[in-house]
Amino acid sequence: xxxxxxxxxxxxxxxxxxxxxxxxxxxxxxxxxxxxxxxxxxxxxxxxxxxxxxxxxxxxxxxxxxxxxxxxxxxxxxxxxxxxxxxxxxxxxxxxxxxxxxxxxxxxxxxxxxxxxxxxxxxxxxxxxxxxxxxxxxxxxxxxxxx
Length: 147
What we know:
Elements: H1 4-18, H2 27-34, H3 38-50, E1 54-57, E2 63-66, H4 75-83, H5 110-128, H6 131-146
Antiparallel strand pairs: 1-2
Helix pairs in contact: 1-2, 1-3, 1-4, 1-6, 4-5
């Protein structure tokens, strides 16, 4: 299960992706639009800024904007950035591998083999789904419903 912080990060990024190219959004605007507590959003945007995903501007035209194109930011990248390893078992983690303490061997572990397929499928979806793709998919769904 993903954390609330990751859900909010993804929602903030989709809001920024829907903004006019090159324009910024104020924290209060994102918080209101996405129903995210403002103080929590400040922390999230700071994490995303440190990771080089968003940037901030000061002044009258200030706010946050995407630093990377929305079609290059994947759900997997954000999930891993905010929540850490994606794998369901420590022996399947790409970024934080650890041998399972109670396992006799990874090659003969039936549990690992099943969850390896789950982890691979999950990573395939998360790292092939971009913020732009998610925004586009929702736009298409809304258009289809209104047609």
